[in-house]
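Repro:
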Amino acid sequence: MAKDGEPAARSAWIWEEGDQPTRSAIFARQVRRVREARGWSQGELAKRLAAVGHPLGQTRISVIEAAGPEPRTVSVDQAQAFADAFGVPLEALMFEDYPITRAVILRDLAALLEIADQFAAAAVDSANRSREMVIGYMEKQERPFQLPPGLTDHLGTMEIRQVSAEELKQEAAKQRREAFEEGEQG
């Protein structure tokens, strides 16, 4: 307590034992933590906020992140824009240990699947480029390689492709249906 029974101003980063940081202080700390974890400057974050439809300048971001007395407010829409720019649930910025809900788990899984799809697509592209390089190399040789019969034809027609989640579901359903039909017939 300050003089005359007034509450003391508190820093966004330091508080008395038993005190709880304000939601604004947590938001500021989380924004800075996530931004730095991604290796982004405040200028880069400003560009990404503009890309999601909420342009804020680097100076404003600096004020939002700064340790210091309250208030340092953002609107709900701005808070959601920060979450969108980072690709995290809003709860991740509003709580130090944000509540794990079904929606949060599903959003995190969707983000992981998107990253996995990107890696899968890159692997497919790499495999296809490698196949094309091997075929090109084989065609340029004066003396053809002695490959097992049929492998040359197989290399020429083989193309690796990414399989969508929907295709996997359809294939699994088909296999279950076939197994069920075999069980009924047997």
